[in-house]
Amino acid sequence: MHFLDAWTELSFLDLGRLLAPIAMIVAATFLPGARTVRFTALGVALLLPLLGELALPLGWTLAWSALWIAIAWWGSGKGEGEPRAITRARGALESGTVGLGLGLALIAFLGAAVVRQDLSPEDARRTSWGLLVLGTGYLNLMLRRHLRRAALAFGAMGLGLQVLHGAARGVQLPDELPPAGALWLATAVAAGPALRLGWLRERTTGSAWVNDAHDLHD
Length: 218
Prior knowledge:
The chain is mainly α. It contains 9 helices and no strands. Keywords: Membrane, Transmembrane, Transmembrane helix.
């Protein structure tokens, strides 16, 4: 009940401020198309300055927004296209089903762990927000199977970890945690090569779909 109260006590404005970025990332996970990536990533970038739960100086908050703008621009490219006809539909369906099951199980497991903790309302919101975005990023990575979209998944996972980092700073000595910009740098290092590899794959083979690479190899 304490967990539910932590969310129901919020005003509609604060609730929308917290849930809007999650809704954007969920939409990018389940909806196809390059435009979906562009608009949802741009929406997250614009909403991040309102997310005080990041617990970051303004400069690093703007750096996160800039990273998501880069994902919106290069993560969508000219379009995703469709997987090649040689892609095995059965294999894609099986991998998607397994990915969906694992992603939802991870989110449920992490959510149950938060519910069992005796946290203050603010810590409960920040922790559950971070874990939900982290799990949704993992779900995106498992389901979409597109190299440029992987950058959005890494961005979501890094953003979730950043909010968890901010929550941890309230209960631990700052010297025991990574510097404020470490998670931003790690996220950029993960997303950058994914965007680069996707661009190279599209230039050389005409497709950045992971399934196409598997089938061409076979």
